[in-house]
Amino acid sequence: MDALIILSIIAFWFCILLFLKHFWSFLSDKRYVLGRVSEVTHVDPFEKKEKKKSRRAQIFSRVTKYADDFTDLGQRINFFSENHMVEEWLRKSGNPLKLTVSRFQGLKIFLLIVGFFTGILTIIMGLPFSQYMLVFNPIVGYFIPIVLIRREVKKRQQQIRAELPDFMDTVSTSLQAGVSLDNALREVIRYFDGPIREEFSRFNQEIDLGVPREKAYRELLKRNDNEEFQSLIKALIQGMDLGIPIAKTFQIQAEELREIRQEQVKELAAKASPKVTLVTTFLIAPVSILMIAGLMIMNMLMGENSIFNLF
């Protein structure tokens, strides 16, 4: 009977591993087929993600429609969130939830009121620390939108910094092959996903609508405060004014960006060394000393040569 149970367990895990193997093969084949279909039919394989984002924005808009009733009050109570600050945050975050400045200001007050009522509910239910929640919950509700939108801004700029070198190398290679800048951008961004793709897709749309190229570049600068990205766009503007080859601009910027990232990694490594020393000094070393001292004391009290054996 025991042998049968062991065989059943082995067969179960074998089937699980077999399932995972075939499932991984299915995902790989699916990714390959989507890529081939997009190449043949010129269909964007990331279009579904954009639809999911817009659907999420619609759901969020329905849920927060009550925040519109508090927009006037929210624009008056604008601690740490004045209108020009909110407008800048929404622009630099890509505004994935399609918020307006007025709705954002109303959302703060709406969540503050929700936090106040949840605090009253905790008092009625008699939960521990409910008297503090009556004050703490409204404050949290007020600052949640501010913290989330600022975190989204930081996350988006970090994604741009991470994807920018590969993007610039790919565009530089396409330009050196004789492809124009607009066509190179249209082709390259199809293989990227995230803020880089969003920004240059919008740039191409503005160019198609007849917006002057320099103005489209300026709009890119307004929507992003990443230093490396701004350096690239400013170099493109300068190259356009001075007639410098664009391919050379992308190549030089990619090399400089990689050097900057290497220096940043070295700087982080140098900063990590004192932290490790601090942890070793104040945590590991005292614990090690206590363990050694404890063993010495135990040996003195309970070992063969303990002090009690002397009497």
Please tag this protein with its features.
311 residues, mainly alpha, extended, membrane, transmembrane helix
Rg, rounded, reads: 30 Å
User: What does the overall shape look like?
Assistant: extended
Considering DSSP H and I runs of 4 or more, what fraction of the residues is helical? over 70%
Give the quaternary arrangement of the chains: single chain
- Beta strand %: under 5%
State the end-to-end distance: 62 Å
Largest sheet: none
Mean pLDDT: 79
- How many helices does DSSP assign? 11
Order of helices and strands: HHHHHHHHHHH
Instruction: Give the low-pLDDT segments.
Output: none
According to DSSP, the number of beta strands is: 0
Describe the model.
The chain has 311 residues and is mainly α. It has eleven helices and no strands. It has helices spanning 2-41, 47-63, 71-76, 83-92, 101-125, 130-176, 181-188, 195-208, 213-223, 227-242, 246-302. The N and C termini lie far apart (62 Å). The relative contact order is 0.05. The model has no long low-confidence stretch (mean pLDDT 79).
Summarize the model shown.
This protein is mostly helical. The chain has helices at residues 2-41, 47-63, 71-76, 83-92, 101-125, 130-176, 181-188, 195-208, 213-223, 227-242, 246-302. Helix 9 (213-223) packs antiparallel against helix 10.
Question: How does the SSE layout of this entry go?
Answer:
Layout: H1 2-41, H2 47-63, H3 71-76, H4 83-92, H5 101-125, H6 130-176, H7 181-188, H8 195-208, H9 213-223, H10 227-242, H11 246-302
Helix pairs in contact: 4-5, 4-6, 5-6, 6-7, 6-11, 8-9, 9-10, 10-11
